[in-house]
Design goal:
binds manganese (II) ion, Aminopeptidase, 14 helices, binds zinc ion, binds ligand BES, six-stranded mixed β-sheet
Length: 503
């Protein structure tokens, strides 16, 4: 897709479709008034009829009248005081998805008055819109079949229409947005794939291909090497499956090198290619969703690739423990006691609390490889999904100053996090008769207890993003299909880029 930023007026732009977002109620003054007048009053008429309204993501497509574009789309951005960076991304995704099944090669989007209402102005809006169009083009229905009739159109050209702006600066910003969107889509494409397709070894193969494309180093550890390193928790989860576990390690920059922020950042992602629960088997209802329990791994693999594209050589480590959690004659049993890489003994009470086991060893290994700061991302607990749903990721971090840096990266990334507390009293719930700790306590406060478990395996500043609720949508929305959302990819990239060399 070609990107073009033009300083022309929207009515002078030739494209198959011209999209015009409006904030609040449609008001036909200034730019929107002129667009409406030249379209022959089409928008005005639809507004009077009740068809064009303030509802966010509601879009109408009309004939262009005297405009140079082939069609005109007006789309509601919702109330002015709720216009966040995330809404800007989603407006653009909605525009692209609204065109599903249509023959559209060139799409123009007018920045209109979005630029005055978003921090960072026209540059920020250009980046977020470009990213949104790319993310809106993602169509999982095409993963296992060709020729999806309703797929969003493959664009030859995206034109951002910013009258009076400096095209060079906006083009750079929009290019960054395209790369961000492509990275999120890479993560989504992997996460959506089924477990009979993507085993730990296949995921490692995908990581190898990505590493090659972007000049990253890669190391993949099998069970023998993991045993040598003492990764007893990681191995305990992988034992039940015929598909052997893989510890996938990607690196950008030199080993243990510090970035410009003085960190060696590691991003660690849960890669459970299928989570049946193991011997503590899950109920059948919705078990099929557990092919997406590898989303954290897909996210960190995509994020390090995106960082390599935007700021090659930035020191960064991505660690993705990949396993299949299955019942079988070799499976770990409830009550089995294993030794973690950091030497702690763990009493595995519930084999369905497997994510924390593989992440504990993965984070310990990240530290061994020189990590000074860690963020993990994981579909870890049903509890966080019940508490916050699919729009807000639950997050933990310590010390607070590090959490705040991660949260600030989340803001830049146009993603939403809600900080949850470590509640010290609950640590006692993880006490074991036999071992240093158990992997589960009672169900109450499950998200906090999982974070308390993970904390036992980290000694550096650390944040934990529990994406169990936000990793995938069960139903489509105007801006995204059902399936993997790409959540947290942009946050990890923004966090890593805070340590990129300043140009
Ligand atoms: N992968 C699941 C968490 C999950 C649930 C992700 C729903 C996405 C949607 C995780 O491994 C799990 O099974 N967690 C258990 C933990 C419990 C056994 C302490 C849970 O949340 O029920
Ligand atoms: Mn589980
Ligand atoms: Zn799981």
């Amino acid at each position: 897709m070609q990107l073009r930023v033009v300083a022309d007026q929207p009515w002078d732009v030739a494209a198959d479709v011209l999209a015009v977002p409006f904030v609040g109620d449609p008001r036909f003054e200034a730019g929107l008034g002129e667009i409406d007048r030249r379209s022959g009053g089409e928008l005005h008429a639809l507004a009077d009829f009740g068809e064009l309204k303030a509802e966010r993501y509601a879009a109408v497509i009309v004939a262009p009248g005297q405009l140079r574009a082939g069609r005109l789309m007006a789309i509601g951005a919702g109330p002015a005081d709720e216009l966040t960076r995330q809404v800007v991304v989603r407006i653009a995704s909605t525009v692209e998805r609204r065109l599903g099944g249509r023959r559209v090669k060139s799409l123009a989007i007018w920045l209109g008055d979005l630029a005055d209402r978003v921090e960072g102005g026209a540059e920020a809006v250009a980046e977020l819109l470009a990213r949104g169009v790319v993310e809106g083009g993602f169509e999982p229905a095409g993963i296992y079949r060709d020729d999806v009739k309703s797929a969003p159109p493959a664009l030859d050209e995206l034109i951002l229409v910013a009258p009076g702006a400096s095209p060079a600066a906006l083009t750079r910003a929009a290019e960054r947005g395209v790369v961000m969107g492509e990275g999120a889509n890479l993560a989504r494409g992997l996460a959506n794939r089924s477990a009979n397709d993507v085993s730990p070894e296949v995921l490692a193969g995908e990581a190898r291909a990505i590493a090659e494309r972007h000049g990253l180093s890669i190391d993949v550890l099998g069970p023998e090497k993991a045993a040598e390193l003492g990764m007893g928790m990681f191995l305990a989860v992988g034992r039940g499956s015929d598909n052997p576990p893989r510890m996938i390690v990607l690196r950008s920059g030199d080993a243990a090198a510090k970035d410009s922020a003085g960190r060696h950042l590691a991003i660690v992602g849960k890669g459970v290619c299928f989570d049946s629960g193991g011997i503590s088997i899950k109920p059948a209802d919705r078990m099929e969703e557990m092919k997406m329990d590898k989303t954290g791994a897909c996210t960190v693999i995509a994020a390090i690739a995106t960082v390599a594209r935007l700021a090659p050589g930035t020191p960064l480590l991505a660690v993705a423990p990949a396993v299949e959690n299955m019942p079988g004659p070799h499976s770990t049993r409830p009550g089995d006691i294993v030794k973690a890489m950091n030497g702690k003994t763990v009493d595995i009470i519930n084999t369905d609390a497997e994510g924390r086991l593989i992440l504990g060893d993965a984070m310990c290994y990240a530290e061994k490889l020189g990590a000074t700061h860690i963020v993990d991302v994981a579909t870890l607990t049903g509890a966080v999904a019940r508490a916050l749903g699919d729009q807000m990721t639950g997050a933990f971090g310590t010390p607070q100053a590090w959490y705040d840096q991660v949260a600030a990266a989340g803001d830049r990334a146009a993603e939403r996090y809600w900080q949850l507390p470590f509640i010290e009293e609950y640590r006692a719930d993880l006490d074991s008769w036999y071992a240093d700790l158990t992997n589960t306590g009672s169900v109450e406060g499950g998200a906090t207890k999982s974070a308390l478990f993970l904390r036992e395996f980290v000694t550096v500043p650390w944040a934990h993003l529990d994406i169990a609720g936000t990793a995938y949508f069960r139903k489509k929305t105007p801006y995204a299909p059902a399936g993997a959302t790409g959540v947290s990819h942009a946050t990890l990239v923004e966090l890593a880029l805070a340590g990129a060399k300043k140009a």
